[in-house]
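Write out the 3D structure for:
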Amino acid sequence: MKERMHFVGVGGIGMSGLAAMALDLGYRVSGSDRGAGRPENRRIFDALVKSGLELFPQDGSFAEVPPPADHLVYSTAIEEDNPDFKAGKGIPRLHRSQLLGKLLGELPEGTRSIAVTGSCGKSSVTGYVAETMVKLGFDPGCLNGALVKNFITETRAGNYRSGSGKYFVFEADESDKSLLNYAADYAVILNLGTDHYAKDELVRVFGKFLSSVRRGAVLELEVYRELAAAKLLPDGLPLRVFGAADVPEVTDGMTSYELRDAGTGLRRPVVRFADGGELELPAPGRHTALNALAVRALLRLLGADEEKLAPALGAFGGVWRRNDFAGHLGGAGAAVFDDYAHNPEKIRANLDLMRSLVRGRVFAVFQPHGYGPFGFMEQTLFEYLEQDQREGDLFILLEPYYAGGTSSFSPHADEVCAKWRANSRHPERYLTLPDRDAVRKYLLENTTLDDAVAIMGARDNTLSDYARSLAE
């Protein structure tokens, strides 16, 4: 048995997958989490315990069980006064990204690492790459910030897969700049968005990350242009650029994304590629078409069989909480969808998709994933909503989710909603309600069968349960 690693906050979507990877590589792993007793988190904790995790209350009691932990593993979300930090005073700490860098170095000799990053879509694309590679016979390992539905087993929650092939696919997080702790063989950079800091700083972060990539990279067109303008493109690194087909820099382009009548009352999402052929996508949405284009570009860079590639791309089973259909409101009303969208670009893409799926109005219910992120994004999100919302659409704000750590507890949902209404051309399109029961009552009284309800937000798994409960 190798060292003992104790994970503080082991139930987090990134931390739990990393714990599963450490277990798989022979470490003794323990962990604690404030949410361990909550039913909505059972899918993660049950799988970890069956894999060998020793689960403790988050009260410092882990330190009483021998042998002593060799390292405390933590994420940026863990506050300094955490009981496990106090009980483990003197035990060396490893940020989760530092541990991942260490574990990547312990993979079998010859394993090629593939890092997927970007402001939006990196969890979906990480899963999309890995599952497509499985279908093509590569048998990759995978560590993801979301639960890949087809990777879920009794001992795997879906955010880690052990593979026997020569590739390992992982999500590299730009939000805390931890992606700079990795030196990957291949990289995919999906987009530039508004989530945690300004775009010019994000460009510098991506440029520094790309400078350590060894074998090749796939870049979205805007990312490529911004890096080129900042003179941050590495010399000699093979690149593929994906985006609109009529742009000279693009090597992997699409000419169109459309919803076609299938003759069954449903419409099929189809993307046409610039170099010929088309693909019926596994899920609707222009963002899904771009994700498919990115995955296709990467696998062509890796030398995948072209004839097998399209069928494999069309068969992706998806990841949990990405436009998941939960049912109909009250059992027979508006269609209810559950989605992880939590920054302006993700929310915009999800609502655009909703508008393409239903004849009626879109009722968005959004719970921000923290007060700090909410304050950073509120203006950009408002500008997008002002541009995109149609007559009858409604955006309902819930109070931000608080997961611990330092916070100013500002701004509140009612403060932002009042500001939006005061500055909007259509103030009736914004609403805040005191709690989820009030939202349920409002939706039942004000929606029709032709409408869609989108439940959106990150970190809080009860949102998924809430979406399903609306359909009961």
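Residues 371-388 form the longest helix (18 residues).
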